[in-house]
Write a structure and sequence with these properties.
This protein is an alpha/beta fold and 223 residues long. The longest helix has 15 residues, at 208-222. The strands form 2 sheets. The chain has a 6-stranded parallel sheet with strand order 5-4-1-6-7-8, sandwiched between helices. Strands 2-3 form a two-stranded antiparallel sheet. It has 2 domains: 3-15 and 86-222, HAD superfamily/HAD-like (Rossmann fold), CATH 3.40.50; 17-80, Orthogonal Bundle (DNA polymerase, domain 1). The mean pLDDT is 95. Helix content is 45%, strand content 14%. The protein has 9 helices and 8 strands. The active site is at residue 8. Pfam families: HAD_2 (PF13419). Mg(2+) binds at residues 8, 10, 166.
């Protein structure tokens, strides 16, 4: 049995909200607008930077016509400061090491543009674990369209597959892709856990290797 796990990035592997908030704050400052709270900006994370910027603009009273300029200004700051404040969630590195040692092939599928995703993974010394990184601009579509997740798994192979994420977008993506979904409950999710379709949940990365082994073994045995 060959196994593969693909992870979401923001709110799953990495708590990146503070750096995203800093970039948003800089963009708002350049437009002469007051900052939004960290909690408010965090609530916008999950559907990629363009969608986040649109939501910030709506809250901040920035005209729709300035969308491209707003994205450019935010990304200019974010590209220079992708991981100043971001950190892997506790236990992520040990978890990835254990999964890799168990022979599980690993990848990332995120709605973040691929370039900053790679910057963050490199800065936090996580890139060594992943064979493929699919970003929100890798394909013409992004999650919850299942195509990016399928693209990641096609690169990894594996007869037993699992997707690990933290959000409603991730849950919908896994469901549409017909892939078992492992929900990390400490990320940026807003919907109650029992309202999402999951194969399993975990609140600490130290627990994921055993959970994944159990779920993926059962899945492989049922094929």
């Amino acid at each position: 049995m060959s196994r593969a796990i693909v992870f979401d990035l923001d709110g799953t592997l990495v708590d990146s909200a503070a750096d995203i908030h800093a970039a948003v704050t800089q963009m708002l400052t350049e437009f002469g607008k007051p900052p939004l709270t960290l909690a408010r900006v965090t609530s916008f994370i999950g559907n990629g930077i363009p969608n986040l910027v649109r939501l910030v603009m709506r809250d901040g009273g920035i005209p729709e016509a300035d969308e491209n300029l707003a994205i450019t200004r935010m990304m200019a700051y974010y590209a220079a400061h992708p991981a100043d404040l971001s950190q892997p969630y506790p236990g992520v590195t040990d978890c990835l090491t254990r999964l890799q040692e168990a022979g599980i092939r690993l990848g990332v599928c995120t709605n973040k543009f691929r370039a900053p995703a790679l910057q963050i993974l490199e800065a936090l010394d996580l890139m060594q674990y992943f064979e493929v990184v699919v970003g929100g601009d890798t394909l013409p579509v992004r999650k919850p369209d299942p195509a990016p997740l399928h693209h990641a798994f096609e690169a990894l192979g594996g007869t037993s597959r699992m997707y690990a994420g933290d959000s409603e977008v991730d849950a919908e993506t896994a469901q549409r892709a017909s892939i078992d979904f492992a929900l990390f409950t400490q990320g940026y999710r807003k919907t109650p856990v029992d309202q999402l379709v999951t194969a399993c949940t975990f609140d600490a990365f130290r627990n994921l290797p055993a959970i994944a082994d159990r779920v993926m073994t059962v899945k492989a045995g049922s094929v």
